[in-house]
Amino acid sequence: MKCKKCGGKAVINMRQHNMGLCKDDFIQWLQEQTQRHIEKQKMFTLAEKVLVAVSGGKDSLALWDILVTLGYQADGLYIALGIDEGIGYSAESQRLTEAFANARDLKLHIVNLAGEYGTDVPTLAKQTKRGRDKPCSACGLVKRHEMNRIARDFGYDVLATGHNLDDEAATLFSNTLQWNGDYLLRQAPVLEERNGLARKVKPLFRFYEREMAAYALLRGIEYIYDECPFAEGSTSTYYKELLNQLENQSPGAKQHFYTKFLAAKKKGLFAESTVEIIPELHLCPKCGQLTSARAECSFCKMMERVQKK
Amino acid sequence: MKSTATLILRGKKYDVKAGSTLLSALNKLEILPESVICVRNGDLITEDTLIEAGETIKLVSVISGG
Predict the structure, then answer these.
(1) Are residues A173 and A306 located together in one domain of the fold?
(2) What digits encode the pLDDT tens for the residues A91-105?
(3) When you count CB atoms within 10 A of the terminal residue's CB, does the N or C end of chain A come out lower?
């Protein structure tokens, strides 16, 4: 297959775009498209401070690489969750993230859950009602809380995550299967800043997961190949596989499913575009973060329960 | 003379017939092309690439969760 731009040897075939590209043209295309999406969605400007949530995986490290290459003020945040499961998952993720930051002389914030709170995600899941066998719920809560905390404490304007189109399509599929109206209304590539909560953006929301893996490999980014041991056999992975079967038969199916959802939402198909979709928020008396609860937030309640045991 | 090649996905080896395309081999193994990146000698290759006898092609899984 030949590169659509230069006629050289293609390294990736993007069937949904009917386009194959060589290494250099693919890297340039992906960076330019990211820039275009950031500007079109008004995610952030060169003058704003961006905090990139990095996990050691391909998407977040690739996002950090792209933003820095494009000239944005992007620092990283790694949250050490204490997931080992016999393979040292968190330790290896942290090593790769630190190596990435050091090699490029980038600023990386590290939050160590054990050091900050004297616990880890598997323990939180076991000792609270969240998760039972799967700590994903506790993990998500911890990540959201700590990302907001670091963004607020260090004065970042924007919090960027490496969610790709496959992540977004799988979430949309899940929420559609359950007709989860609130979540459908809130799913978007940009969540505006609100009462001290940093704006949240997903600059990779238009790229397939396969494109992000190719970008990371072509840029020589060392990332953790293993997925989180707790994510194996997860519903979101199953939905991604289902959507890939659909994509295999009908190239562009994933893209259409997600982008046409965004377009329909913008037109007010689900609700008036001016409708208030975020519940009333209050300040948690303990940590000072916003919460929909009238007392302590879910994170503080969870930590309190664990510390009492 | 060896007429097969090896595909490796997550440490598991698959013997495939040389002379066919990668796409054909992936289809026979029921591996969705959308779920992997194919790497030969460190270079990414597209699914229309012909498989050569004796070579090893690494398949990098692209799906991640968590």
Answers:
(1) no
(2) 999 999 999 999 999
(3) C
Phi, psi for residue A96 in degrees, rounded to 5: -65, -40
A135–chain B nearest CA distance, Å: 10
Q: Which amino acid is at A266?
A: K
B56 lies in some domain: yes
Question: How do beta strands A190-191 and A199-201 pair?
Answer: antiparallel
A77: enclosing H helix or E strand: strand A73-80
CATH number at residue A63: 3.40.50.620
End-to-end CA, chain B? 45
Whether the CB of B39 is below 8 Å from some CB of chain A: the reply is: yes
Put simply, the answer to whether A1 touches B48 (Cβ < 8 Å) is yes
Which chain B residues are closer than 8 Å to A240 by Cβ? 63, 65
Tell whether B56 lies on the interface with A, counting CB pairs under 8 A. Answer: no
Share of chain B above pLDDT 90, in %: 91
The chain B residue lying nearest A136, using CA atoms, is B66
| Domain housing A302 | 281-309
CATH number of the domain that B43 lies in?
3.10.20.30
